[in-house]
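Input.
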Amino acid sequence: MSMLRRLIRGLTDIAFPGICLSCRRKLGSGGDEYICAACGSGIKRNLPPFCSSCGRHLEKNNLNKNICPGCLRKNLSFDRAYSPCLYEGIAKKLIHEFKYRGKDHLGKPLSKIMIDFIREYDLPVDYLDCIIPMPLHKTRLRERDFNQAEVLGRHIGAEFKKDLLTCLNRHRPTRTQTELPPQQRFANVKGSFSVAKGASLNKRNILLIDDVLTTGATSSAAAACLKEAGADIVFVLTLAS
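Output.
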């Protein structure tokens, strides 16, 4: 999508804000600027108890282990991940509007969900030194004209007064992870990240921001790269998982 087409689509949404981006019905009072109250309340939330690795809801039969079976079988490089929403239904539809249809103005209401989650569950942002958004490869960035993780990260950084660093690069193009079975996703992204020369990450605690966590392969590869560059703790926060 060209920047002009994205701008026109964004201006149309702003000029005619009376239609919910999820259900397409007319917005009534009490709703979000782009989402009606019914759709906002219909977003499925990720509820505790949480897996101590991927951050997804932990079923009762795994409570004594404090980790889900999927994470037990993986060697993930990030220290812990968090997500306020489940990647299904309304949340999935809104992320697709934001990510693939050029509606970067959705970054504000979607980042608010992440900000509210941080506050509700008292995530340790005070101990984190900076925020780093998951980068896009330059070819994909040209296609979209913006990085959705950076849009979310800027709102979150402004809210908690944390610097947003764009020193993480995606230097190798990879196949879209959704095209691959879970067992191939780790190999697909391995070695695809690098840290910009001169970036100072030594002993820094980092919040890595992305829109969706599925297998954790992309976040793990990015976290491994950050730790190789000297980072201490890397937490991951995504809108949905």
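The chain is about 35% helix and 10% strand.
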